[in-house]
Amino acid sequence: MASKLNDHILECVEDGIIVLDRDLRVRVFNHAAERTTRLSRQGTIGRPIADVFRTNPHLADQMSRTLDSGQSSLSHEAPLHLRDGTTRYVSLTCSPVTDAAGERLGVAAVFKDMTVIRELEERARHSDGLALLGTMAAGIAHEVKNPLGGIRGAAQILRNALEAGKTEGGTLLECADLVIQQVDRIDRLIEDLLDLGSPKKLRIGRVNVNKVLNDLVQLLRAETEAEEVRFDLGFDPSLPPVRGDEERLTQVFLNLIRNALDAVREHPGAGRVRLQSRFDLNTHPGRADHSPQPMIAVEIEDDGPGIRAADLDKLFTPYFTTKARGSGLGLAVSHKLVEDHGGAIKISSIYGKGTRVSVLLPAEESE
Ligand SMILES: Nc1ncnc2c1ncn2[C@@H]1O[C@H](COP(=O)(O)OP(=O)(O)OP(=O)(O)O)[C@@H](O)[C@H]1O
Ligand SMILES: [Mg+2]
Hints:
There is one protein chain. By secondary structure, the protein is of the alpha+beta class. The chain has 3 domains: about 1-115, Beta-Lactamase (2-Layer Sandwich), CATH 3.30.450; about 125-195, Orthogonal Bundle (Helix Hairpins), CATH 1.10.287.130; about 205-360, 2-Layer Sandwich (Heat Shock Protein 90), CATH 3.30.565. The chain contains 10 helices and 12 strands. Strands 2-1-5-4-3 form a 5-stranded antiparallel beta sheet, sandwiched between helices. A 5-stranded mixed beta sheet has the order 7-9-10-12-11, covered by helices on one side. A hairpin with a 5-residue loop joins strand 4 and strand 5. The longest helix has about 50 residues, at about 115-165. The radius of gyration is 31 Å and the shape is elongated. It starts with a helix and ends in a 5-residue tail after the last strand. It binds adenosine-5'-triphosphate and magnesium ion (MG). The site of adenosine-5'-triphosphate has 20 residues, from helix 9 and helix 10.
């Protein structure tokens, strides 16, 4: 009676179930297993699994390893090649089957067809990519169209003046200068864009991050003298140097501090930009051998308007900007540069309260 009920349950579950005996021969092959593998129970029961899964030796191997080791194992998205030449993807869990005395009797393999989920994920990734491309295309169009408008206007004035034979006067020179300026602007924009694709080689040295930040603050203090902006500095004096390209890192921090300044300027009552540096022993992103990499962390915090939740995952997209005169390249370029240094940038923000940007960079290790 119990065995009949068990059989019935096996047939009803949605997951494929295959049970092998200790000789790795198929004992159970339920309906869902038939459906996913397109193999029939009659053709599989009693046969060695290596035979049944001749075109999928990795799956047969996983089952036999489970029997040998007595340890459960899991594959997340293992390909399952079908006889018609198509491939499905399954998550496969194999567990040893033992009796009450711990004697190994065989292996139970449970698998789920992940193909549809995988396709959906792929489609979502693809449309994310398209959305990003849309933001970028709109940004480039906007950035190039603006100066083009100016260039066309200037050319028109020059043309009219030439036609009328009026070649003297300052206006014509101004027009020519405007054309040069605007062309240079487009040129810089394209340069920045190319930088994103293939970074210039980093000139790695020992960089004193506190000094870089201090120099930037000096510069920006002079620039913001007339404004209600306060810089709070909290630098760890024992900070080890960073392995990096000083010029590039200066560019990164300048972008980030300028963003903080823009933020506090546009938010009534705001005006505090806090810069902190510290040694961070706990973080070690991406070392090949997984050994801890000592990092230094720089935090740039402002009490500006914050960032809308919906915008948070667009920040590093080239040309994403909410500013009338922003190019939207600052964060994209900074992100790329920090990653080229083996570091990371994280941005957290509470809308209406402020924003915190954390930059992690690999510290120079003392020998
Ligand atoms: N500290 C911040 N507070 C609020 N919003 C921010 C902050 N930093 C970045 N942002 C948002 O992220 C967007 C993208 O920033 P990014 O630096 O890439 O470009 P930008 O500042 O708009 O232009 P650019 O830096 O090229 O002059 C900004 O337009 C703004 O909406
Ligand atoms: Mg910016």
